[in-house]
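Students often ask why we bother encoding 3D structure as a string. The short answer is that it lets us treat folding as translation between two languages. Here is a chain of 432 residues written in the first language.
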Amino acid sequence: MSVIMLMIGLAILIYMTVRGINIIISAIIASVFVAITSGQDVVEAMTGTYMTGFTGYFASYFLLFLLGAVFGKVMGETGAAESIATWVMKVIGPKGAVMAVVLACAIMTYGGVSLFVVGFAVYPLAVSLFRTADLPRRFIPAALVFGSVTFTMFLPGSPEIQNIMPTEFFGTTPYSGFWIGMLVSIFNFAVGSLWLHFAISRSVKRGEKFEAHASDAELNEREKEQLPSILLAILPIVVVVAGMVTYSQMFSATSAAIFALLGAIVVACITMFRYITDFWRVLERGANDAILAACNTSAVIAFGKVAAVTSGFTQIVDAVLQIPGPPLLSLAICINLIAGLTGSASGGLGIALPILSPIYLNMGVDPGALHRVSVMASDGLASLPHNGYIVTTIKNICHDTFKRAYLPVAMMAVVLTMCATALAIILFTLFT
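And here it is in the second language, the structure alphabet:
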């Protein structure tokens, strides 16, 4: 019964989020339901377990959220993000509209630009390309998500939080599991590109075309002359990647990401200062976005913390740990389920790794394999409809509906990612 009540609590969280209710409010309501139905003292659960989970995550990762958000705002305000997207789309051309959108997102997210900034920056150009190629616009969210939170998230060296968190628990670096991680990322990109092309081609053959939205009139694409050159635009991203390589040899992964992002912000502000109209306003907006993003993620993690002390959660974890096969398989399933429970890749890792890392390290499993599989596994069921970025991309950025747009997104972010994770498990089991 406890497992059933836990699933109902998750269903409440998903339903309220999809309905557009604030994620913090949704998480509190779902947490109260889980606490009551599992026999916890509600006051203690909310003031103790819930708030400990909330503040613990916030304190650990707020600086990363802050610097990531400020960097994203600087890249957006200067037009650097738009310049990169425009350059990629110019090189590939309208015939490669879908891949142009995917690659523009991939370059920026691997370079440390906030997911939300990438989405808002690339979307206007994606609309223009899809309109020129007369492709169904309901696939734009899938292209944005594919380029932002799939193969780029688990590429070795990524500065995203999901790739930083495992270093604390496994004693690894952001580059751990490099060769297999790189191979699986390439597999993910290749298969995802083929499926997306197939799905769009099939829809076009059925008569689907580009549909204009009233919101298109609000899109404000800058003139080419108002954008920094591609060399200036790409320089801060080079600084992030180079900084991650350099600093990860000297400091912890979290510190390396902080120094890399800070250096990129300084370089971007110096080289593109003339494109910034109000520097302090950019910092203020970045700080506000960071607080909102960190609070939203912390709220979902706090829900997971309340769920984690229930007997239903313990039963699920115990059952998964008994699954026959290589240890990496049960690790991946467990992280996937917890990430799905929280609706957040970083949230799932924040709950799962403190519990699971000692168990699997004591089994003698290679830490690099544990790191890379953990990152990949966190990005499967986490992309169910209650995921904050998925909701924002479909509803707020693309002005579409879940009924029209979510299936292609789910294929990219849920199904394909789980297949890639399975491949990683096989390869790590055979070769480590």
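Translate back mentally: The chain is about 75% helix and 0% strand. Keep this in mind for the problem set.
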